[in-house]
Design goal:
This protein is of the alpha/beta class and about 270 residues long. About 50% of the residues lie in helices and about 10% in strands. It contains 11 helices and 6 strands. A 6-stranded mixed beta sheet has the order 3-2-1-4-6-5, with helices on both faces. Strand 2, helix 3 and strand 3 form a beta-alpha-beta unit. Helix 6 crosses helix 10. The longest helix has 20 residues. The chain is globular. The two termini are about 25 Å apart. The relative contact order is 0.20. The C terminus is likely disordered.
Length: about 270
């Protein structure tokens, strides 16, 4: 028997559901695989997707996957019991990612190498087991930081996308928390006592990252301009929506099941 879902804050669930509905992220018959790192973001998204699964006027499957990088001092294995208690189908994949990074990484960051490795393993699992949607837990703060990294160091106007189809055309990637602030997720995780695994990227934690520096830069700027992230969300929307047309074209031509959903009151 699964545990009840902790009560989700109205603003948090409304923002996430509005994003899912607007961008038609989950649909009738979808098989959704959620990437769960053990951090507050993915664990909160798990609760949101379970809420939607219970209340939406359409049916979809939900499972979770964790990639264990097999590093000393960090193990997400505790999530196995948690997922079992929730009754969530769970796939646990082990891979010596940091060891592989030390052997093969050339002029790249641990974060970038790890992200590619984890994404590749999640795609592989999704294909092998027939999941057509991969859900990821990045939020608006992540998206803003990624934009600055791309602009400052890559010379490109680019950031994380809300809903797109992978190159192979067999998996849609969604980010339902794209307009949610990180502090909302932190507050919920604490209040709901989610089993967050601290320091869930040990290689990066031991080496201060550029992303952390930009996080501090944005925090300082927000202290001066409290509407900063609202403005960034509006300004970055075209970049966040890149690839959306291709993702939607991959769906059937039936009307969106979200037409019956009630996002206004925090339900689905």
């Amino acid at each position: 028997m699964s545990n009840p879902i902790p009560r989700l804050p109205k603003k948090l669930i409304k923002t996430a559901i509005k994003t899912m509905a607007k961008y038609r992220m989950v649909n009738e018959g979808d098989r959704v695989l959620l990437g769960v790192s053990g951090g507050k973001d993915s664990l909160t998204l798990l609760q949101i997707l379970r809420h939607v699964q219970r209340h939406a006027p359409f049916k979809f499957e939900l499972a979770a996957i964790t990639i264990d990088p097999q590093t000393e001092g960090f193990s997400p294995a505790a999530l196995k019991d948690y997922m079992a208690k929730l009754g969530v189908t769970y796939h646990y994949v082990e891979a010596p990612i940091v060891e592989l990074a030390n052997e093969h990484m050339r002029g790249d960051s641990y974060c970038a190498f790890c992200a590619r490795m984890k994404r590749g393993l999640m795609y592989k699992t999704a294909r092998e087991l027939g999941y057509n949607v991969l859900a990821l837990g990045q939020h608006l703060d992540d998206i803003a930081e990624s934009f600055l990294m791309s602009a400052f160091h890559g010379g490109k106007l680019n950031t994380m996308k809300l809903h797109y189809l992978n190159d192979a055309g067999d998996v849609r990637i969604i980010r339902p928390l794209g307009f949610v602030r990180e502090r909302q997720l932190r507050e919920f995780a604490l209040e709901a006592r989610l089993p967050v695994i601290v320091e869930n990227c040990p290689a990066c934690f031991s080496k201060p990252t550029e992303r952390q520096r930009l996080k501090l830069l944005l925090a300082d700027e927000e202290g001066q301009h409290r509407m900063l992230f609202k403005s960034l969300g509006q300004a970055l929307r075209p970049l966040m929506e890149d690839g959306l047309d291709r993702a939607l074209a991959a769906l059937d031509k039936q009307p969106s099941p979200w037409a019956q959903a009630t996002a206004e009151d925090g339900g689905a």
